[in-house]
Amino acid sequence: MLTTKQKTLRKFWYATIRLDALADGPKPFRLMGEDIVLFLDAEGKPAAMADRCCHRTAKLSKGWMDNGNIVCGYHGWTYDRTGALVRIPQFAADSVLPKHNVESYFCEARYGYAWVALDEPLSPIPDVPEDSDPNYRRIFQFYDVWNCAPLRLMENSFDNAHFSFVHKATFGNINAPKPKKYEIEETEYGFFATTVIDILNPPIAHQVTGTTEPMTERRMRNHWYLPFARRLDMEYPSGIRHIIINSATPIDDNRIQLVQLLYRNDTEADCPTEKLIEWDKAIIDEDRDVLESTSPDAILDVSRRIEQHMPSDRPGMIMRRRLLELLKKHDEAEVTNVYV
Ligand code: FES
Ligand SMILES: [Fe+2]
Q1: Which end of the chain is more exposed for a tag (fewer CB within 10 A), N or C?
Q2: pLDDT at 127
Q3: How confident is the model at residue 339 (pLDDT cuts 50, 70, 90)?
């Protein structure tokens, strides 16, 4: 089955478009196979609705804004943030409008992005306390389309066995392939996983880690948020925290919009933004290369997976079990194999 067929996955928040990208007018986005339009209302709050005018089906994202309402570029029909039709320019100003509306979606501003849930959300947008902590800076790190399924990125996040291979050109040590174990505590929203790993620290990473030692360690306190969000919270012995927040926003069945934010408790003088982007891009490009080679067919039925024999795959197994439980709970009980 396909991600877009899993109706339950519509009930979660996904980061879509930067708020500042909406300042000059409406923008299109594709979420779980639905074409949506995003815009800022009169109060500057983001709104999302189907990208389809109910008059003659033109895409509303080709239109423009008028006092916080969106105007279709074809004949000027105008809608408010709830999708209700509020003006037909061809009608006399005092005439009663027909009751037409475009389907609207849940939309909230958070961490510089418009987050959207297509149906009433089952859980809140993941909390990032550092976003309002003056000791941290926020960096908009990446916003890229990846040709892979979102569960592939999530399972990769908690897979300590890939470092020595996928990341052998950056921080992974090919000579130490035995992975460190994660301690996992399941939570209502997913799980909390902790571990400490040894990493290579080449000169290019010195400002990132805050040390010039050839090797250092990362204390990882990571969270997985059902279904496709993660927090990778890394702390180095220098005291530097490097906290990555991702939404693997499903565009359709085999593409994600990878949204990556970075929070650091240091300053631009300690480590310039461009260095942080350069280093993490080198790492994430290694992941991307291998993940785009994977099949989107991530089987949820854990008994059918060979990887259950490798202890380091336990986080991915828990993800599959939790996803399967979630789908069953919401009447998608027949699902055993999902493209996610
Ligand atoms: S198609 Fe939108 S106003 Fe006619
Ligand atoms: Fe990786």
Answers
A1: N
A2: 97
A3: very low
Q: pLDDT tens digit string along 292-310?
A: 999 877 666 655 555 555 6
Annotate 188-252 with DSSP letters as a single string. Answer: SSEEEEEEEEEEE--GGGHHHHT---SEEEEEEEEEEETTTEEEEEEE-TTS-EEEEEEEEEESS
User: Could you tell which of 74, 88, 91, 100 is best to mutate to test the pocket of ligand 1, judged by most ligand atoms within 8 Å of the CB?
Assistant: 74
Asked if residue 211 and residue 148 are part of one domain, the reply reads yes
Give the number of the ligand closest to the Cα of residue 75. Answer: 1
Position 21 scores a pLDDT of: 98
Report if residue 166 sits inside a domain.
Answer: yes
Q: Are 243 and 207 in contact (CB under 8 A)?
A: no
The number of folded domains in the chain is 2
What the block records as the tokens of 197 is 């790993």
Look up residue 235 and give its two tokens: 């702390």
Decide: 279 in ligand 1 pocket, CB within 6 A: no
pTM of the complete model: 0.93
Question: What is the span of the domain harbouring residue 280?
Answer: 129-329
